[in-house]
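To the wet lab folks,

You asked to see what we're planning to order before we commit. Fair enough. Below is the target structure as tokens, and below that is the sequence we designed to fit it. If anything looks off to you, flag it before the synthesis order goes out.
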């Protein structure tokens, strides 16, 4: 298989005003002053246990047949698993694969493999999220989080199709099937693409090795999530399939409602690379680009912050991926104050509903062909 280079872009040199160095020093001082670690604390480990129980306890009740005979209870258990699945994704797997549980990488790797338990593949996720999304946020052709194969227009730099005018209505269906697509075809598609781009080689993986691992993980996943319930739940097979789909539709919608308002809103910059001397360059530095394309929401909503793994503090997450999310709420005022000192915009929606409304408005504007003025 022929390998082609990833069409990467180069960001401008670090800003001369020293914002990033200043905010990093303030954050470092916060941890030193309070004599606490930037890694997981007791609250994080407690949350880990709760999320795992929220997923596995309903599953055990399903497999043991305790929900048999009552369709409402049976489907309710799958519905609860969706919240556990979402929580595992936002509050466990995400931190572990960013290396923020512990200074011991073996612990991070071990916990990170919970992604395989819920149907994903860690190596692909790290490439898509840690490398592509966090480096090239909202840059079309590089950030796969805004690549929807043309079904939804999530950037003003993407082509407009006639059906996009309705995307503020139909996008929610595609959000619901997000995890279902991920657990079936996405990992295979990504493996082939990453091979072509040379990203598997950088991860010290061959395509054959990657495909075999994905196959084994998927067989394991579908074996315990569908086959065992069909055999032992005491409910008809079509009830099991319906429950499985209900779980994924719910989890997909939850995860989309957490991630999309953080980047796909009208205030996001969506800056496109400039072509200079046969190379792609960004006008701004990486830090400025991240601030320009990232938005926080509902900073005072303690439950949402807890359940969403602190991802409503998306600015802090993008600037400090090496810090466990349980600290973001305390770091946010530091980052916001420092950004204001340096005259940088700190995007924030006060509530979750305002953030969701802003995202829906953006979907509608993009669907009508909106492009950011140059």
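Sequence we intend to order:
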């Amino acid at each position: 298989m022929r390998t082609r280079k990833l069409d990467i872009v180069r960001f401008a040199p670090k800003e001369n005003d020293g914002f990033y160095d200043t905010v990093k020093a303030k954050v470092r001082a916060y941890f030193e002053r309070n004599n606490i670690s930037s890694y997981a604390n007791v609250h994080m480990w407690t949350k880990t246990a709760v999320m795992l129980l929220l997923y596995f306890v309903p599953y055990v009740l399903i497999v043991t047949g305790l929900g048999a005979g009552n369709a409402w209870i049976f489907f309710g258990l799958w519905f609860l698993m969706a919240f556990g699945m979402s929580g595992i994704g936002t509050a466990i797997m995400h931190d572990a694969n960013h290396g923020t549980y512990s200074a011991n990488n073996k612990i991070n790797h071990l916990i990170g493999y919970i992604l395989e338990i819920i149907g994903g593949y860690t190596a692909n996720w790290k490439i898509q999220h840690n490398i592509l999304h966090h480096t090239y946020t909202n840059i079309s052709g590089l950030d796969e989080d805004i690549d929807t194969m043309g079904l939804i227009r999530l950037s003003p730099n993407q082509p407009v199709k006639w059906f996009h005018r309705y995307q503020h209505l139909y996008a929610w269906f595609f959000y619901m099937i997000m995890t279902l697509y991920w657990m079936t075809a996405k990992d295979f598609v990504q493996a082939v693409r990453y091979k072509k781009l040379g990203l598997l080689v950088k991860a010290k993986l061959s395509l054959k090795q990657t495909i075999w691992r994905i196959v084994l993980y998927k067989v394991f996943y579908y074996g315990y999530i569908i086959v065992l319930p069909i055999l032992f739940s005491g409910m008809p097979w079509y009830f099991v399939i319906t429950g499985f789909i209900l779980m994924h539709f719910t989890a997909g919608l939850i995860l989309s409602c957490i991630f999309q308002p953080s980047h796909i809103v009208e205030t996001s910059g969506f800056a496109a690379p400039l072509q200079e001397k046969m190379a792609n360059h960004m006008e701004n530095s990486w830090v400025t680009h991240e601030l320009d394309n990232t938005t926080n929401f509902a900073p005072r909503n303690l439950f949402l912050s807890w359940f969403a793994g602190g991802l409503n503090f998306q600015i802090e997450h993008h600037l400090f991926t090496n810090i466990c999310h349980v600290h973001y709420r305390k770091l946010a005022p530091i980052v916001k104050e420092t950004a204001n000192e340096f005259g940088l915009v700190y995007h924030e929606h006060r509530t979750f509903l305002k953030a969701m409304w802003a995202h829906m408005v953006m979907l509608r504007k993009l669907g009508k062909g909106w492009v950011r003025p140059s």
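Structural context that might help your review: Strands lie at 10-12, 274-276, 279-285, 296-297, 348-349. The chain is about 60% helix and 5% strand.

Thanks,
Computational group
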